[in-house]
Design brief:
CATH superfamily: Vaccinia Virus protein VP39
Number of domains: 1
Structural class: alpha/beta
CATH architecture: 3-Layer(aba) Sandwich
Number of helices: 12
Order of helices and strands: EEEHHHEHEHEHEHEHHEHEHHE
Largest sheet: 7 strands, mixed
Helix content: 25-40%
CATH topology: Rossmann fold
Strand order of the largest sheet: 6-5-4-7-8-11-10
Length: about 325
């Protein structure tokens, strides 16, 4: 697709798109830009493209290490924090993780599950569950398996499947999973509606697709020009707002029950640093640990999540 051509990857409109930003971080070709669909309002990379080779080489993680000075040990530490919070979120949203009514083990597919930290934490909470990490990068899967198998103290090690979620996998596994997980996956793909539809087809009766993505309506995009410039990157094809994320889900599964929540990943000190200094914290960004550290953080985080101006969105799609 040429630079001036456009087709929305959510609503399929070909109407002329409005420019959002002409400079895209990581665009070595200089041909990419960020645009907004004039029909549904979805913001996306144009032309929409994503390199699996870049992902397989852990390009986005390596970029953080090289440009912000955050060591892999800190990235892994933050990944464990996020894994614990995501497991705890099921209870916070009153989503039961009990075994299905048929008495079989809970079946969970973690699509794009990376190093497997969430899957491991889920197995810690539900030891009898059948949890599979579907990861397209063999390198990431192997790195995750090695870290989990050699972790101190001992942690559960999930199954790893190096594959993409496609029609062949759905044909063989339709209607068999209680949960299909998509943590920070949807923003990377060129057909988010199609991926959500495939995930929905995998659900057993009473099952749920769970999605987390960065939030376009994060107020730091307005408060920090440097944050905004960093936010629009070649690795992200879609930039979802609460409205467009829900729209994508309803197109994928018109009869399903869809809910979109605000979710704050990073802590208040990271927020203040971006807003005041207009730059990242560097090697040790403040990742919210799961427990508010003072009254202001409680009020700040609650307000951001309630108004859905948080740094991330959490969506559920129920059969």
């Amino acid at each position: 697709m040429a630079r001036d051509e456009f087709e929305c990857i959510v609503c399929a409109s070909g109407a002329p798109a409005a420019p959002v930003q002409d400079i895209v971080k990581g665009d070595k070709s200089g041909t990419l830009r960020i645009v907004r669909c004039s029909n549904c309002g979805h913001v996306q990379l144009n032309p929409p493209d994503y390199s699996l080779e870049f992902y397989d080489e852990d390009g986005q993680v390596n970029f953080v290490v090289q440009n912000y000075g955050t060591p892999m040990t800190k990235i892994f530490e933050h990944s464990w924090i996020e894994a614990r919070r995501r497991v705890a979120r099921f209870a916070e949203k009153q989503i039961p993780l009990d075994r299905p009514a048929n008495g079989q083990s809970l079946r969970v597919l973690d699509v794009g599950g990376g190093y497997g930290f969430f899957a491991s934490e889920l197995l810690r909470a539900q030891p009898t569950a059948d949890v599979v990490v579907m990861e397209p990068s063999a390198k990431r899967a192997e790195m995750g398996r090695f870290d989990l198998e050699n972790h101190t103290p001992t942690v559960p090690v999930p199954q790893f499947l190096v594959a993409l979620l496609d029609e062949d996998f759905v044909r063989e596994n339709r209607g068999t999973y209680d949960f299909v997980i998509l943590w920070h996956v949807l923003e990377h793909v060129t057909d988010p509606v199609g991926l959500l539809a495939l995930a929905h087809e995998l659900l057993a009766p009473g099952g749920m697709v769970c999605v987390e993505v960065p939030n376009l309506d994060d107020e730091l995009n307005r408060l920090s020009p440097a944050f905004r410039a960093r936010n629009f990157m070649a690795e992200h094809v879609s930039y979802f707002s609460p409205h467009t994320l829900e729209a994508a889900a309803r197109r994928a599964a018109p009869e399903a029950r869809v809910e979109v929540y605000g979710y704050q990943r990073y802590g208040i000190f990271n927020y203040f640093h971006w807003a005041h200094f207009n730059k990242p914290q560097g090697e040790d960004p403040d990742m919210f640990p799961g427990t508010d550290r003072w009254w202001l953080e409680t009020a700040w985080r609650s307000a951001k999540e309630a108004t859905r101006t948080s740094d991330a969105l959490f969506m559920t799609i129920r059969v």
